[in-house]
Each structure stands twice: as structure tokens, then as C-alpha cells.
Write a structure and sequence with these properties.
Elements: H1 3-20, E1 30-31, E2 43-47, E3 50-54, E4 61-66, E5 76-81, E6 91-101, E7 104-112, H2 120-123, E8 136-142, E9 152-157, E10 165-173, E11 176-183, E12 194-202, E13 205-206, E14 214-217, E15 239-246, E16 253-259, E17 268-274, E18 285-287, E19 303-312, E20 319-326, E21 336-345, E22 351-352, E23 361-362
Antiparallel strand pairs: 1-23, 2-3, 3-4, 4-5, 6-7, 7-8, 8-9, 10-11, 11-12, 12-13, 12-14, 15-16, 16-17, 17-18, 19-20, 20-21, 21-22
Protein name: Arabinanase/levansucrase/invertase
Family: Belongs to the glycosyl hydrolase 43 family.
Keywords: Glycosidase, Hydrolase, Signal
């Protein structure tokens, strides 16, 4: 992407964010959703008094920085990575995430070489149409411990055994570092999309071979299928967008993932809990099969809610979910915007997510009122 094109994107974001700031109540103690009026696959992390957000732009990787979790109208904007043409990672960059590991920042993201359009000679190998067959996972590394002042360079392609891979994330555990991502069972299976895990030796190197890779979850429940409960094939049924969530009080480890299809009203969040000691043992994970843990609220026109990330309020006392959703479920991917809400914890240590909506809601605890003037 040329700089002029990126600046058009930035200018559009600033104008759009500024217009949405009018939805923030004149009472500085409340805000309304969306917090970003256009966008999907949001990742938010907090570091040294700032929130950093990345999300899918498809053409590059851009980082936003704000001191206010729920008002991005004055956010700073940084181009972290503008891929050169003609590479395997040049197009359709999806779901970037910014992680701090061993005093460096790593951006893990998905990309492909040809706008998600494989030639017929490749597409015909798939069980169903497989436009994402060439998507793979990549990692950028920062030049310093400062996520904003750093330059980011391509460190590596992650080994996913030359198979479809999207929505990868890091899972940190006392036994090591792991890569959890959305995978097909074989190279040309082309649905369903499952959750896979592999062991890493560092943030850019997978040490597990393909026989050691494990499937953690497959979309076996009606709410994980598209359309809801589809019985006669697995096309478009998905588990994707995995995110690690740790209970700050009990230390319980969860993977919250997205289910069904991201342009569909039924897109929602499912839950895995690590109940054993080995993340690579699929029997050490417990899946909540009863239903989505976060799902559409048709009474408030909040549809397609998913692909979440998690952070805390400025004072660290509250847990917050940042996710994308849509008001119009018939428009598909273009209708998605970015939202945030506080959530609680159940007595058994599992997350207790709210019903998605638009507010007004109280701003995160510890939000500096002067930043909202």
C-alpha cells in the first residue's frame, strides 16, 4: 500500500472516529457503542498508561494508541507494516495481535498472496470452495521494548505445515509458549474450521511437527454451525478467533473463541477451559457445549458479536471485553464495528459476559475525565 493510500485510510479513520465521539455522552461518566464505527477483529492491550489497538484493515497493519479505552476519537495512528507486493503475505492481512514477550513486541497476523482467490487448479482440490486455502500465519518483531516508537520487521512465517491457518494467537502457560489458531484437518479439507494448538520454542518458531499438533475443538454443536444447526455438511462451520483469558483471582485459564461465521447474525463466542496440566493434551481441556457464552441480542439489534480480546480498566479493577458486532445482519462483513463492555466473573471462576448492546454504559473505572474533554 502506497503511503498516500495509507494516509487516506488514516484520514478516513480520524474523521469517522471523530464523528462517533458525538455518541459519547456529555456526561463524562458514560459512553455508547460502537467505540470505533468501522472495523473488525479487534485486539486491545494496555501498557504504560496507554491502550493499543490493532484490527483488520486487510491491506496493512496499523496500530492505534489511546489513553481512553472507550473513546478513540483522539487516537494516535501508526503504520506498523506495509507489505511489499508479490509476497505470500502481501494481501488480505487479517486479525493482527500485539503481544509483549520477553521485552519485545510481536505482531502475529494472517495473510495470503493473492487476495484470497486461489486458481481453479488449486481450488478444485478442496472439498468445498476454499478461498482461504493459502492463508498462513506471520510474525513481526519490534526493534525495542517500546511498542509505539519501535519499527516492526517481518521475523518469520509460523509453521502451520503448509496448511490453512488464520486467527492465530499466543497461549502462555507455565509449561511454555503455544500457538493456537483456526485450522483445517488437512490441507484441502476446506471446512469445518477447527482450533489447533502447537508448541513453540520462541514467539516465531513452532517446534511441534504435524503429527504432534493437536485439535482442541471442532464445531460440533448447533450454535457453531452455519446456518444454525446445519446437519448435512460442514461447510462454513467454524471455530476461530481464539483468545487466552486468565481469571485474575483464581488463575483459571480459558480460551474464548468465535463460532459459526463472522458475516452471520449467529456469530458468537464459545469457551474452552484448561482443567489439566498439559495444553497439548486435548483431554486436558473442557469445552462448554451448552451454548455460546456471548451471543446476539436481537432486542437491541446487536448481531454477529465475536472475535473478542480482553483487557482491564485503567485502574486494573475491572475486566473488559472488546469485540466486533453489527447492527444490520444482512449486510455482512462490511457492517461490522468495534465495541467494548465490562464483564464479571462467576463463582465457579468462569467469565460472566453481559448481553451485547449500545449503552449508555459507565466508562471504565479510573478513566481520566480530562482525556474526554
Amino acid at each position: 500500500m502506497a503511503f498516500s493510500s495509507w494516509w487516506v485510510f488514516v484520514s478516513t479513520f480520524i474523521a469517522s472516529a471523530a464523528s462517533q465521539s458525538t455518541t459519547v455522552s456529555s456526561n463524562a461518566a458514560t459512553y455508547t457503542n460502537p467505540i470505533v464505527p468501522t472495523g473488525a477483529d479487534p485486539w486491545v492491550t494496555r501498557h504504560d498508561g496507554y491502550y493499543y489497538m490493532t484490527y483488520t484493515t486487510t491491506t496493512n497493519i496499523t496500530i492505534l494508541r489511546s489513553q481512553d479505552l472507550v473513546d478513540w476519537s483522539n487516537a494516535e495512528v501508526k503504520l506498523a507494516f506495509d507489505p511489499p507486493p508479490g509476497q505470500n503475505y502481501s494481501t488480505d492481512l487479517w486479525a493482527p495481535e500485539l503481544h509483549n514477550i520477553a521485552d519485545r513486541w510481536y505482531i502475529i497476523f494472517t495473510a495470503d498472496p493473492n487476495y484470497d482467490s486461489p486458481p481453479p487448479i488449486l481450488d478444485m482440490l478442496c472439498t468445498f470452495a476454499c478461498p482461504a486455502v493459502n492463508h498462513r500465519m506471520y510474525v513481526l518483531e519490534s526493534s525495542s521494548s517500546d511498542p509505539w516508537e519501535s519499527n516492526y520487521t517481518l521475523k518469520s512465517q509460523l509453521d502451520t505445515y503448509d496448511q490453512f491457518a488464520i486467527d492465530g494467537t499466543y497461549f502462555r502457560h507455565k509449561t511454555g509458549l503455544y500457538h493456537i489458531y483456526s485450522c483445517w484437518y488437512t490441507a484441502y479439507e476446506s471446512w469445518p474450521a477447527n482450533l489447533c494448538i502447537s508448541k513453540m520454542s520462541d514467539p516465531w518458531t513452532v517446534e511441534s511437527n504435524v503429527t504432534e499438533r493437536q485439535l482442541l475443538s471442532v464445531p460440533s454443536n448447533p450454535w457453531e454451525k452455519t446456518p444454525y444447526g446445519r446437519s448435512y455438511n460442514e461447510r462454513l462451520s467454524s471455530n476461530e478467533g481464539p483468545q487466552q483469558l486468565t481469571n485474575p483471582n483464581t488463575g483459571q485459564e480459558f480460551v474464548i473463541y468465535s463460532a459459526a461465521r463472522s458475516d452471520n447474525r449467529n456469530y458468537c463466542l464459545g469457551q474452552l477451559e484448561l482443567v489439566g496440566e498439559d495444553p497439548m493434551n486435548n483431554q486436558d481441556w473442557r469445552k462448554r457445549n451448552e451454548g455460546c457464552v456471548f451471543y446476539q441480542n436481537a432486542l437491541e439489534d446487536a448481531f454477529g458479536v465475536g472475535h473478542a480480546s480482553f483487557t482491564t480498566s485503567p485502574d486494573g479493577t475491572e475486566s473488559w471485553i472488546v469485540y466486533h458486532g453489527m447492527r444490520n445482519p444482512y449486510t455482512g462483513w462490511s457492517a461490522r464495528d468495534i465495541r467494548a463492555q465490562k464483564f464479571e466473573w462467576n463463582e465457579d471462576g468462569t467469565p460472566n459476559f453481559p448481553r451485547p448492546g449500545y449503552g449508555p454504559y459507565e466508562v471504565p473505572s479510573g478513566t481520566n475525565a480530562t482525556m474526554r474533554m
